[in-house]
Amino acid sequence: MPDLGSFLGQLLTSLPASQLTQLGQVAVEGSHSTTAQTIVYYEKSHPGSKVELTTTSIDEAEAVLKDKEGMDFFLSTLKVLFAQGFVDVTRGGERGTSNHLVPGWKPTTVEEFLSRL
Prior knowledge:
The protein has helices at about 5-15, 15-25, 35-45, 60-65, 70-85, 110-115. By secondary structure, it is mainly α.
């Protein structure tokens, strides 16, 4: 299974230093899936399993942040960070990824990963 360590190792040892300093960021993406698609992939690869998705608003998530403890705090923190643009995992499409910088690199997709669980 391809991993980020091998990608970075190949990238750092194969690109000239001048090109590395111009990168700024490295974006690696195996697939681009919505939460709903990820649930479908999981249920498909794990027959008999059923995932229930519960959503909350940003306002609800921010209210939970005041508690500062537990899994709800962690999940709410992630939700708020995503909503405010601090976390970016949607680099596919027009902005592209760095996958092409390592010839033959084929990262594991969400569907492939979930089928191995």
